[in-house]
Amino acid sequence: MKKYSAEVVEICENGDAILQFSDEMIEDLGWKPGDVLSITMVDGAVHLKNITKEEKTMVKKRNKIVLYEQAPYIQGYNSAIAKEEFYNPYGDIENAEADAEDYARGYENGLEVK
Description:
By secondary structure, this protein is of the alpha+beta class. The protein is 29% helix and 25% strand.
């Protein structure tokens, strides 16, 4: 595993740090603007992982549904009430069959509301 270093541009009042990554690092790792990174500390070193494909958010149209921010049933229900086309964000997530069913049930029940 190749190691990289980054420049600390700023330390924020809340303790967060703003880092500047080298173009070489970004290119080598295949990162793109908008990628979501997971940050962990291991033995004093910062470990970054691109979790864009694994991220727990999905974008549909202009609405961002944050998975598990609300119960799947409520998300489906609210989507139907808003007259959005059916799209089940849990359908493609491994081991989330029960959540996908809850979302679909909520959507169906929301369609029944007049």
